[in-house]
Batch of 3 targets.
Target 1
Amino acid sequence: MPILNIALIEGRSNEQKEALIREVTDACVRALDVKPETVRILLQDIATQDFGVAGESVKAKRERLA
């Protein structure tokens, strides 16, 4: 049973998340030759303040570039 943990920076719509779940499930079915019913996906939204790149939070970078 594949279990996938996907971390995303917050802000995606429910529709986008549903599409991601469908697409990732389909990819697992093709690549791993498993049934869709066995695929488990955990999506985690990460606040922009809690995710940093190159020494700066995403929130700070977005504010600086706005």
Target 2
Amino acid sequence: MVEQQLVEQTVAHPPDEGGRRSLRRDVSLPALLAGLVCIVVSFSGPLVVVLAAAAAGKLDPAHTASWIWAVSVGSGATCLLLSWWTRTPVITAWSTPGAALLVTSLGAYPYREAVGAFLVSGVVVALFGITGLFGRLIRAVPAGIVNAMLAGILFSFGTGIFTALHAAPVLVLGTFAAFLLAKRLAPRYAVPVALVAGGVLAAVTVGLPLHLGDAGGPTRPLLTVPAFSWPSLVGLALPLTIVALASQNAPGLGVLRAFGYRPDDRLLIGVTGGVSVLLAPFGSPGINIAAITAAICAGPESHPDPRRRYVAGMSAGALYLLVGSFGGVLVSLFTGLPKELIAVIAGVALLASLQGSLAAAVAEEQGRDAAVVTFLATASGMSLFGIGSAFWGLLLGVATHLLLHARRPSPGRLPT
């Protein structure tokens, strides 16, 4: 309690420029290592989901590398600057659930229209952040419906672990077993351990043809001129915006508050939304406040003194910039992984998000009908009028909720 009060006072009343804490004095090895762990987790599991989305959109290696460069540089710059400015361990990242949405939707639209949807989503997120409408949006749609939509998006990744069994049973079962064992002994490193174990098993069983090719140098970002269409705006931009705000930024801010910080949501969401707009033409679907990796840097493992944990956020930001600048190398390495290994790594990386969204979707008995409708419609992969299932799941869920729970008008008094 004392720690929480101390952090709240520090963040609520930040010192002026002359009284700012000295970065040189606050740097510590645990904080630097926390930033390193954050990057390892980010680039081991969630990156596989991004690559799966790029493959679904039929992007070539150059555009895929540009996408990784954009999300990495955007995450690095915002981590570094926001952590330094607010003296809070602000961790930002691309949205893994958002990338999962793109796996099921990106291939339905021309890439230029997808970039246009990314740009519009960034503008909307920034406006909701700057104007303070973020909280109102979160309260407008029942949380169960939003979580059910997210669960429907992630459902195919969970089942993908087991549908890959017939092609490479030793690889899939061994990787999954390594994940579960690490989850028991060292939960923070479960996904990286699964990736390493899976790589070893792949090399032994089905082969691991990794190569760098001509991608050894820094990435050259590719600019794509955005195009706009109603189907892409409704089918991509709208679900991406909702996922970014409700399933990414809201939990991310919640993690910081849980550790006693009082983040300025207008500043954090406004800045990340603005950076998303700038990087959308290079392939970035959005930069958001992180949740899982934020807990690594905001917790006591980063530093016993909560006022010195912002260094972990800066460390993560610097490493994001370094690693992301060589996105072509990452693409070359990861595209050499067998598809069965990618399926199981993506599945285990999203397992926590899936179980959390499922639990939240049915937490309230009154909203379960609408949540189930949303989940089934989204997981079905249906498409109508060129618009993907995430939007229709959300729309049908809200309609179900209104139909079942809308207040009936009070009958007027009978004349006497």
Target 3
Amino acid sequence: MDTNTRNYLTVTAGYWAFTVTDGAIRMLVVLYFHLLGYSPFEVAMLFLFYEVFGIVTNLVGGWLGARIGLNLTMHIGMGLQVVALSMLTVPDAWLTVAYVMLAQALSGIAKDLNKMSAKATVKTLVGAGGESRLFKYVAVLTGSKNALKGAGFFIGAALLELIGFRGALAVLAGMLAVVLIVTAILLPSGVGRMASKPKFTQVFSNTPAINWLSAARFFLFGARDVWFVVGLPVFLYSVLGWSFTQVGTFMAAWVIGYGMVQAAAPRLLHLGRSDNAVRRHPGGRTARRWALLLAIVPAGIAFALHQGWPPGEVLIVGLILFGVLFAINSAVHSYLILAYSDVEKVSMSVGFYYMANAGGRLAGTVLSGLVYQTQGIEGCLWWSAGFVLAAFLLSLRLPEVSEPKSAAAAA
């Protein structure tokens, strides 16, 4: 096994371990604080700082990674997650809303440091060119992350039932601490660190392709969360009469399936085409085509519900279609940000891009509750379609990626 492949596998394993804890802690907090008598609004507020600090972390984290190295920022993220998990093991009397919001803020910082570091590291391991291999590496890393986050939902709930809230947190913190030590030993130092120390103002990209892609990413993820975060689970529970277990299991299964499609995106994009006709990597044209297809799905679901079709069947089938198309869109975007980025500045480009991603999640989360309360699930779906259409229009400015050129030249 060559050094780059070994390092890629090490980064991926660390990312996997972190992602399991990220999914598990979300499920643990939701279930346990519901049992403590927190209202749904109070439970939702516990995650506010998680999203807000994700935006800040992505902005600062890329700059920090370029100065001190991506392996170090990844391990700082793991360490902060261990601290966040440990903070929640205190007695119930200490678990005020403010205290838990602080722990969730640390977890949000940790998650985005880890994600930015892992994905930017892939670019440094592949280097300029090699775009086909880069697409495959990114698709596997991103897809497996989402599948494992769904698995983390199950693991968190199972540990809560088997060994209780604090026991579950202790197991997760101990597991991640071990992974932190192992990856710190195996990974070389200084990965992704720029030779010259970049100024903070350099975190704002001056590459048009990265700016257009980041704007499209904002609306793409807002389109998912505007109906998925609040509107969908509340509708399944309050209107269709599903139990909490049924809602949680269905949504976790969706996340796992979505991740599997993401990992398989390179193969799915080439179905039915001969090798001679295949572009070995996607470009701006690919992003536009799949965004337009995705916009049709939430609009179609909303129209079907308005026509009085059975809501359960419509939502299940529609969510499956949405998940498949959204996963491909997300995989294409995750590849393009690395393809458009210069190898030396990749951490700052990825940080800026995921700042937009976090902003889209935050906007979608807030709108999901507001729109569902005022316009119902159909309103959430029409907003989703509008957000995807905005992502499509922004993607009109995205260029293609040429294999022989460096990432900087391609941008």
